[in-house]
Design goal:
single chain; alpha+beta; five-stranded antiparallel β-sheet; two-stranded antiparallel sheet; 4 helices; 9 strands; 36% strand
């Protein structure tokens, strides 16, 4: 493949990920489910889809699971906590990198950082 073809393929894949809202979907999966998966397993294991629960493997910040006959991995890497403001109006931001793999191959990675914010459990990206 020529360099121009490679760049065109990268751009095609990037556009496809945007069109599919992949970033928002993966963030929602992490934020609403996998962020709390250990609590769900301990307190309410029946709320987790049996196919996911039965094949779930946890190792630190990595969750590996099986769904619809495919193997997935979801990894979250938290950065340094950054503070802003003082007192009642203060906030803390923790930049994160979220990685998705399918069949052992990383297929998507993105960062949620200080110039992005969250609303209602969904990532809103500028």
């Amino acid at each position: 493949m020529e360099e121009a073809e490679i760049r065109a393929e990268i751009e095609r894949r990037r556009k496809r990920a945007v069109d599919l809202r992949l970033r928002e979907t993966v963030w929602d999966l992490y934020y609403s489910q996998f962020q709390y998966i250990d609590d769900y397993l301990r307190k309410e294991p029946e709320t987790i889809l049996p196919e996911v629960r039965d094949g779930l493997k946890r190792s630190g910040n990595l969750s590996e699971f099986r769904f619809n006959n495919s193997n997935y991995g979801l990894q979250s890497l938290a950065g340094k906590v950054e503070g802003c403001g003082r007192g009642f109006g203060s906030t803390e931001t923790t930049p994160m990198t979220i990685k998705l793999s399918v069949e052992g191959e990383r297929v998507f990675e993105f960062e949620v950082g200080e110039n992005r914010y969250l609303r209602g459990g969904h990532a809103i990206f500028p």
